[in-house]
Amino acid sequence: MPFDPDTFVAWMAERKEGGMPDLRRKLTWxxxxxxxxxxxxxxxxxGMGKVDVDWNRxxxxxxxxxxxxxxxxxxxxxxxxxxxxxxxxxASDLAADIVEHRHEExxxxxxxxxxxxxQYDDSDHLRLIADTIGASFExxxxxxxxxxxxxxxxxxxxxxxxxxxxxxxxxxxxxxxxFEDCAWSPELQDGLYEIMMFGSQRQYLFRRNGDWYRxxxxxxxxxxxxxxxxxxxxxxxxxxxxxYVAQLMVDAPMSLPPAQxxxxxxxxxxxxxxxxxxxxxxxxxxxxxxAETIAWTLRRRLEIES
Length: 306
Known about the structure:
It is a single chain. The protein is an alpha+beta fold. It has helices at residues 5-15, 20-30, 35-47, 85-94, 123-133, 141-148, 217-224, 258-265, 288-297; strands at residues 17-19, 51-54, 59-62, 66-69, 76-80, 97-101, 115-119, 136-138, 167-173, 178-181, 191-197, 201-208, 211-215, 232-235, 245-250, 273-274, 281-287, 302-305. The protein folds into three domains: 1-139, no CATH class; 167-224, no CATH class; 232-305, no CATH class. The longest helix has 13 residues, at 35-47.
């Protein structure tokens, strides 16, 4: 039976929370063992607000229901969170119109959850929908997220260096744009490292001037890549047209960290698409201010392309 992402999200909504190891096992079985597909689905679901993940506790929580306006959309709102069929029907009964966009076109074995758009008359109408289905209402979540973004940094989260007993030690190589196996040494070079914990859990550490910091894969790559290179690109959608929103392009080996990723996704409710040829991540419908803020927080230039 084909994977139904909305049934899976509804199960998460009913369950409310659980452990990530169990969730990964379920998704891995549904993905026929495709570990990359599992990571991509979790990234999509987190970005779309369907689920929140506490990586420190290794647990997931069903995303809270949220009704919000899309930036620059003019009468189109987004229903986010862990949606059940009953919630979807209740929202449909109240909205002027409801549009559900499934994502089979992405061709993934684990399709992302459906995007649910609501057509509304005014903000009071959206607020009424939110109140009726038990959701929070926010005038524009994407704009609020943009204002709250902070520059990435090494931070003050000190970490112990990798030990000779850590399995699968790999170092990020800028020239190749990927992690490669490396031998343990008490004098490892500065940079980003990946180690395997408990057999399957990846942990990322960054060494800078002899000190070690906990980080994530996406943040660590941005910290290691030179600031003067690897810009983000903001490209007009096919046919030009609206210059308020355009497509944000994030070239490999970069990806957006969770906060920037969710901010970009909430501009439309659509998951990011990835080029099978270049590995570039593409986010549609991104306002220029949001694109500039994301680039600034990642220490990147933003190239404006027509």
